[in-house]
Amino acid sequence: MTDRSTGTDWLARSRAQLDRTDLRAEAKAVGRVVQLADGIAHVSGLPSVSLGALLSLESGAFAFAHSLGPDEINAVLLDETASVAVGDQVSDTGEVLRVPVGAGFLGRIVDPLGRPLDGGPAPTPEDWLPVERPAPEIIERGLVSEPLETGVLVVDSLFALGRGQRELIVGDRATGKTALAVDAIINQKHSNVVCVYVAVGQRATAIERVVAAVREHGAIERCIFVGGSASAAPGLHWIAPFAGMSMAEHFRDKGQDALIVIDDLTQHAATHRELALLTREPPGREAYPGDVFYLHARLLERAAKLSPELGGGSLTALPLAETDAGNISASIPTNLISITDGQIVLNTHLFSTNLRPAVDVGLSVSRVGGKAQAPALRKVSGRVRLDYAQFQELEMFTRFGGIQNARVKAQVARGERIRGLLTQPRFSGLRLVDQVALLAALADGVFDTVPVGRMAELRRRLPARLDSDAADAVAALGKSRALTDEARAALVAVVSRLAEEGREREAVTT
């Protein structure tokens, strides 16, 4: 009796399993690796695959279709090539390349595919987004009217950034490009902006320094670090900016504000050229749609301010680019300048003379500028750029002889004070009220008798004194972001007292 019941149960389970089994025929296209070199797999046998499709290899590695030929596909590997061999099977997953996104990635260091690099568990994604996404249409965009404050006086006062803007940071090697961008990330600890830092071809130690700086001075719990280090596969370098953009777009599309720093697009262009040459494609401007200009244009166009109907979120892009001997008219810098909404140019000479950040005021520009600047800052920074540019011209001529004209002497003295104010050490971001107080005091002549060497100490002591001696003005400006005559007088009075205290201490010591 037991054997019969057991056999009956087994038969019932088997029939139920057969009912659940899909016995329909399934067609599956399978290709093979016919050639492998330098991170490129030449695949045959997949005639129906689409451009950018995600391919799965027999070893478990992944690749994406970079270019399509009549008989072969050039696939760029996203993993190490040690596990891949000629003859391995390759199958089309039917999907485009996607990356995981979500709040679980905040505070984490991941590779462009979302895999953890910090030793922690894999983040739980809220969604999977394609690395290549269309930029918002014009009708879907809103006005760029809110400032993205960097805490760097020379940027916020002269080249104000708006939320949704694309501002290029360009300069020679080792002129402080990354430092300026990291300071902008650190300053977002005072805001609600989510930051994404994308490293393309950077050394692992350089990425570690950026993470350490944000961990010590900023809000790392609102930052994502996407590491395509120099030792990673070329395919990861190529998709890193696009993957980081998708991770940032997740927050923009939810109505939040995001900032992405891409460090840097010169390395990305070099990787693109390398892949183009290996796949026997022309790498120059004539290679549309595979040219580097179109590549970076479709990347940076994704940074935008969305309309209120779509939630009003914003994505601000700060791409970095490296020049050679200050030549901003070279191919890649010219491409990026024409794509972005302005550029901050860093000067090697200024950097070597210890003027940091080494921003070239004459070549830098923001095409959004005052439209996104806080009204209080716009009110007090109107003439600073013109006065500083005039000082730089006068300083050049005064090197050849003494200055006799009193008016010229006054202009040079004022220019030296402006330069002293704009020279700012790292990790010392200024609040809006601090910047307004300094520029208002400059306009009122408070610094005319202050030695240039004392201005750094005055700037360092100012925030605490404003909070204690002008609390009402600080609160009013922080709430309305406008500057009344009473608030201006209170702020300038605090700066004047600090300057007077400095003169008294100097007199005592001498």
Specify the helix fraction band. Answer: 40-55%
The assigned structural class equals alpha/beta
Unreliable segments of 5+ consecutive residues: none
Q: How much of the polypeptide forms β-strand, as a percent range?
A: 15-25%
- Mean of all residue-level pLDDT scores: 89
Q: What does the main sheet amount to?
A: 8 strands, mixed
Strand order, sheet with most strands? 8-12-11-13-14-10-15-16
User: Globular, elongated, flat, extended or rod-shaped: what is the shape?
Assistant: elongated
- Tally of alpha and pi helices: 16
Structural Rg: 28 Å
Distance between the termini: 112 Å
Number of strands: 16
In short:
By secondary structure, the protein is an alpha/beta fold. It is built from 16 helices and 16 strands. The protein starts with a helix and ends with a helix.
